[in-house]
């Protein structure tokens, strides 16, 4: 398991982004920013959120998808399943290192 | 001082007039020939003397990259007030309108974001009832 996932999850804003994508998958940058501002009172700039999304994407926790002229962000949970199998199901194959 | 006009830059004025009147439900207020294009405005039937929305041609070379960049990130160019975002969402979906954001509670307001078919995203919003 790459360290990227743990680094990505270490930040509270990035965890909030994952919370919001859990509520509804497939959000534009605008929707993510609006949710963080209005529901969580986070004052981060759009650029800062964009950078957080890049970290989540590099860790494999978020995937972006172009649909027509729009870009949507989807949650991808595979890296989290590796965490579960590493400590909660250590006998399962493909345990991360 | 008052806000008298607001504008959206559209890729085709005829298509825009159809969408903003037949689909969104505004009514045409002014249509004045102006060379290649027209001075074309619509108003809300609920407020015919209110702020006019100018359906402005997007032919200036700076406009299209600006519109594309906003659309890519899902950012609406303006916002219209509705009584009930959920009901309006259902009505417009029935008419084939695409949304980049389904209705969502955003603190004191509920919003959704739709595609105006002319290169813009438009937000619709209502203020949530205080329980």
From TrEMBL, chain A:
| Domain of life according to the entry | Bacteria
User: Which SUPFAM superfamilies does the protein's record reference?
Assistant: Winged helix' DNA-binding domain
Task: Name the UniProt key words of this record, in alphabetical order.
Answer: DNA-binding, Transcription, Transcription regulation
- Name the record gives this protein: Transcriptional regulator
> SMART domains under this entry?
HTH_ARSR (SM00418)
Q: HTH arsR-type domain: from which residue to which, for each copy?
A: 1-95
A GO molecular function held by the record: DNA-binding transcription factor activity
Has keyword Transcription regulation? yes
Pfam assignment, any one: HTH_20
InterPro entries named among the record's database cross-references: ArsR-like_HTH (IPR011991), HTH_ArsR_DNA-bd_dom (IPR001845), HTH_MetalResp_TranReg (IPR051081), WH-like_DNA-bd_sf (IPR036388), WH_DNA-bd_sf (IPR036390)
TrEMBL record, chain B:
Specify the species: Streptomyces populi
Tell me where in this chain the VOC domain is found: 2-127
The identity of this protein, by name, is Bleomycin resistance protein
Pfam families, alphabetized: Glyoxalase
InterPro entries hit by this protein: Glyas_Bleomycin-R_OHBP_Dase (IPR029068), Glyas_Fos-R_dOase_dom (IPR004360), VOC_core (IPR037523)
């Amino acid at each position: 398991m790459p360290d990227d996932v743990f680094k990505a999850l270490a930040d509270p804003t990035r965890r909030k982004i994952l919370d919001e994508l859990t509520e509804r998958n497939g959000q534009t940058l605008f929707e993510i920013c609006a949710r963080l501002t209005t529901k969580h009172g986070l004052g981060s700039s759009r650029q800062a959120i964009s950078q957080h999304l890049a970290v989540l994407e590099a860790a494999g926790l978020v995937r972006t998808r172009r649909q027509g002229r729009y870009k949507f962000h989807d949650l991808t949970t595979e890296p989290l399943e590796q965490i579960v199998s590493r400590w909660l199901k250590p006998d399962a194959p493909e345990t991360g290192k | 001082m008052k806000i008298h006009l607001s504008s959206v830059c559209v890729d085709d004025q005829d298509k825009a007039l159809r969408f903003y009147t037949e689909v969104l439900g505004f009514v045409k207020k002014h249509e004045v020939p102006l060379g290649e294009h027209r001075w074309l405005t619509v108003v809300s039937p609920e407020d015919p003397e209110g702020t006019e929305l100018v359906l402005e041609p997007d032919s200036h070379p700076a406009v299209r990259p600006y519109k594309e960049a906003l659309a890519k990130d899902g950012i609406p160019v303006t916002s219209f007030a509705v009584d009930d975002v959920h009901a309006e969402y259902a009505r417009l979906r029935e008419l084939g309108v695409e949304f980049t954001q389904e209705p969502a509670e955003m603190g004191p307001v509920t919003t959704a974001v739709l595609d105006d078919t002319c290169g813009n995203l438009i937000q619709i919003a209502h203020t949530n009832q205080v329980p």
